[in-house]
Amino acid sequence: MAAKVLAEAGYKVALMEAGGDYDPAKEEHRTQMRWPWESPRRGAGTVRPFGDFDAAIGGWDIEGEPYTRKNGTSFDWFRSRMLGGRTNHWGRISLRFGPLDFKRKDQDGMGDNWPVSYDDVKPYYDKVDKLVGVFGSKEGIYNEPDGFFLPPPKPRLHELYVKKGAQKSKVPVIPSRLSVLTRKINNDRGVCFFCAQCNRACQVYADFSSSTCLVKPAMKNGQTDLYTYAMVREVLTDDKGMATGVAYIYKPDMKEYRISAKVVILAASACETARIMLNSKSKYHPNGISNSSGVVGRYLHDSTGADRMAFMPSLLDRDRYNEDGVGGLHVYSPWWLDNKKLDFPRGYHIEYWGGMGMPGYGFGFGMEQNRKLLLDKMGVPAPNGGYGASLKKDIRRIYGAFVGMSGRGESIPQYDNYCEIDPNTVDKYGIPVLRFHYKWTEHEEKQARHMQDTFEEILTNMGGQLMGTKPGADAQYGLAAPGRIIHEVGTTRMGDDPKTSVLNSYGQAHECKNLFVVDGGSFVSQADKNPTWTILALSWRTSDYIVDQIKKLNL
Amino acid sequence: MDRRENLKLLIAGSIGAGYLLTTGCTPKGEDPKNLKLVFDYGRTEEEKLHDAKLMEETFFTERERKMIDILVDIIIPKDEISCSATEAGVPDFIDFMMRDYPKFQVTMRGGLMWLNARSLDSYNKEFTACSEEERMTIIDRIAFPDQALPEDGQGVAFFNQLRNLTATGFFTSKQGIADLGYVGNRPNEWDGVPEEVLQKHGLSYDARTLEVCLKKEERNMIANWDAEGNLIRS
């Protein structure tokens, strides 16, 4: 976003990318509209963690680029090494933070308020909506602000069951809000043709990824130079502590290069940005650049996540039709309760899944425990396992009969959840790596317990038979390990007090005024909303501020 | 089987695997650039090389492969709708998965050995030499996890793995997807659940849903909003 805004404002931009160029419209990059048999592993996740056709190149573990963990705590770090990074495969759920989300400390006394309010960010959310495109519906819910929406797609069959079941539990179900073009917004990008494969990246650019929607326009007027396979090691500074550029390793020749700049903007993802800053040590910045507070890397937090699944007898023997729809949910449940009446402080939203999707690796697994769900005409369950024509028939019958839901919630940022530089380890480029220390607190556990209760209630109301057992306290109520939801933010948080924050409210480093951060690092708290839309809005706001400051000769 | 013979079969198998006959055997140490990079579905260079290396080998010996061919067709036979697992290429897929996910290997190879041991115990011949009736007597001991005897637990675990891989291999093949009736993965204009399906399930779209949701005829019209963010519908 920053590259686009600054290039269009007429500035020269050097865009540093640690991976290769990527364009889903190019045949050699295309994984969209492929059949499972085109992959020898039928789409299994042995090479790419979310499956062979997923657009993300990288994953939880990248050869030669380790990270470590401290004191037996857990954090899993997902990285995509490619132009556009993780925006190429994400869920496209594009939710604005609401007025309450920016001021949580005012409500429950925990964490900190943002130095900005919804009113500060709203104009940028509006601009992002129009530039990128997002479908949704105007609902008038105070903390789920409406935007400039494209029309949402109609719910699928299981989503109508969800609506019915959730209604009984007084849980609202509204059209989802995804950055997928159900209508054209301009002539540069195509319109969604409903293949349900947004995670494979769209060859007609009908969904948002930064590579297709931002880098392309940024490159258009020749103001932007793209440096691929450039692994940034540190921000260089002069003797007054001002940023002068970056040092990077060019992967093909493994040599170090330097590039100078008047302004350095980091958008490497929250943890990678913190890593670069911590590795940028100098006489002026002995603790890492703009880190005399020691806050860089601190307050790392991810969304909470838990899920549950059920078998729907009413969805056995389904009529076949093309149910692909957009890539992801057509409906969702925004947070609907008042935490003052609950034993945990922050909310969650619910995402729903199911339907007759394209079979991939793993389809047909589990008949050794699921076949008994199928009853014959006399009501007698089929024997688990088995073989032969009857097994084949039962797999056909059960296709599209499972429904699931996932909660995605807000955690409380903790000073003691952090990433730091591991004093003993470097990656293959010689760059010191991150070491993570992360533990969930009772707040997140209690929230997950509430999710599990809600999931069971809705699924049962829908006529579903719950699958598996309800995770209890010993399993943290099914709470996903930190990092697994891939919403990690907060490592270079903004604030008015330089002693307790890294950036000011414009994403400008307190101790290095020509250094900016425009990724999720700046988040004071990650609402139960997915972070992308807020990253885009804040990045645009920062970019406008940079242009303004350059004009005023402050930079 | 002695080791040397086993090795010979492995090499023979790699040619006979039928996956991609363009892939020859590359002697160890040869420049990886000479590997034939046969997969092209949005792969990075590293991924192409990785898969090309996997394609150089075969997991099953010829003897094992004969057993697999029999077993997968027991699990997914030809019926009035579609072909059998072997006809859909499932054994090649399973062989690949053994190489792609080596954790499968012990259960698979050990399970085949287990099966032969039971055949020898009961009928004094290997599984492939057994009659169909004899084979099914052994399979019935391990195909139904809830009814199996505790001493057959290892066989059950093997057969569960084989059932999973066979089912998934079949239903992700061209023939299997046609059998299943999946009709997506092509450009479409999603306009909701067909009316007759809604009726069958006693469900309907409420008036507000119909009002706010996409009308397919407006898809290609460039969107515009008023100052309050109301989409201008026309």
What keywords describe this structure?
heterodimer, A: 555 residues, six-stranded antiparallel sheet, three-stranded mixed sheet, 10 helices, 19 strands, 21% helix, B: 234 residues, mainly alpha, 2 domains, disordered N terminus
Q: How is this structure best described in words?
A:
Chain A is of the alpha+beta class and 555 residues long. Chain A is 21% helix and 17% strand. Chain A is built from ten helices and 19 strands. In chain A, the strands form six sheets. A six-stranded antiparallel sheet of chain A has the order 5-12-13-14-11-17, with helices on one face. Chain A has a three-stranded mixed sheet with strand order 3-16-15, with helices on one face. In chain A, helix 1 packs parallel to helix 5, helix 1 (2-8) packs parallel to helix 10 and helix 3 packs across helix 10 (532-551). The longest helix of chain A has 20 residues, at 442-461. Chain A is globular. Chain A starts with a helix and ends with a helix. Chain B is mainly alpha-helical and 234 residues long. Chain B has two domains: 3-180, no CATH class; 190-234, no CATH class. Chain B is 50% helix and 0% strand. Chain B is built from ten helices and no strands. Chain B has helices spanning 3-16, 45-55, 62-75, 90-100, 105-123, 132-142, 153-171, 174-180, 195-200, 207-212. The longest helix of chain B is centred in the middle third of the chain and has 19 residues, at 105-123. Chain B is elongated. The model of chain B is unreliable at 1-30 (pLDDT under 50). Classes of the chains: A alpha+beta (555), B mainly alpha (234). Chains A and B meet through helix 3, helix 4, helix 7 and helix 8 of A and helix 2, helix 4, helix 7, helix 8 and helix 9 of B.
